[in-house]
Amino acid sequence: MLTNYVYKLRPNKTQELKMSNWVDMLRSHFNWCLNDRITQYSQQFIQGNYCDIRTQGEACPLTSCVSKNGATGEPWKIGKTDKEGKVKNPRRNPGDIQITALPELKAARPWFAGIDSTVLQQNIKRLDTAYKNFFEGRGFPKFKNRSNFTSFTFVMGVKIQGSKIYLPKLGWMRFYNSRPIPNGFTVKACTVRKRQNGWYVSVRIEDKSVPDYTTKSLKDVVKVIGCDLGLTKLVHLSDGTQIQNPKFSTTKKAKRTLKIRQRRVSRKTKGSKNRKKAAKKLGFFHQKISDKRQAYHWKVANKIVFRNVDAIALEDLNILGMMRRCRVSAIAYILARPEKVV
Length: 342
Hints:
By secondary structure, the protein is of the alpha+beta class. The chain has helices at about 15-45, 95-100, 100-110, 115-135, 250-265, 275-305, 320-325, 330-335, and strands spanning about 1-10, 50, 55-60, 80, 85-90, 150-155, 160, 165, 170-175, 185-195, 200-205, 225-230, 235, 240-245, 310-315. Helix 1 crosses helix 4 (about 115-135), helix 2 (about 95-100) runs antiparallel to helix 4 (about 115-135) and helix 5 (about 250-265) packs antiparallel against helix 6 (about 275-305).
């Protein structure tokens, strides 16, 4: 069984400053790796199989600067031998090329040496995951800014003792042990994330002796309940029960608070400390709404799961696609209400 537990960290000033610097450096590293792959792909797309367009020289993987794999670096593995003792040089993928270049990065920019090596490797694998999602039909990887890059991941060297956690190159750090880890589970990885009210750690734990789920035969399934996502209601159950969908961000009080705090941010001078303080208060309010909504969803899920049924049926719907299909286009709006068009 593989699951995640989330805790709030209690770092000291030194650790908090170091983690903030790590996030900034990792964001810069992520953007550089993404730009490197885009540049290499563009260079390969323009030049094709040639090292130089003017001379029409054929590209050679040993002498050409053009990397056919989409990243700057050595595209071949060196020193690998097969069972017969012959040297083999399989091609590296872009992620492996950039991971292999990490020692050179630390030598050229010594401040990256203060970051744990597994954190830098996971930063490149994060880009690999973004490209994998792109090739499966999702959006192309985007360059990160301060608002959408706030986390980093450890995969080795993490230890937990009571209410303290050890993170490599950060040391022992206290956290609120609100949910003790069960006996038999081992720590596989952890992700440190910065939010408006502090730092949080998501610990991934695993116990292979505990199954993820227990299957039942169709003969044992007697009572089944179906769940349907509603518009005005959150969930409609097959037995006629309807679960309310509270609007945490559209109540009269919430809309007024949101309007006031957004207005305070817009009135401050850009780049000033007062604007940052006002933006921080606005972020606190958005986080409060998000926590309320998440807590309510867990409460509803717990209510449905603990019903006296043998199985729960769900619809496999593409909600975002349905909403996009029903969206009114500009041409339809003009044809429906020509008097509104000036």
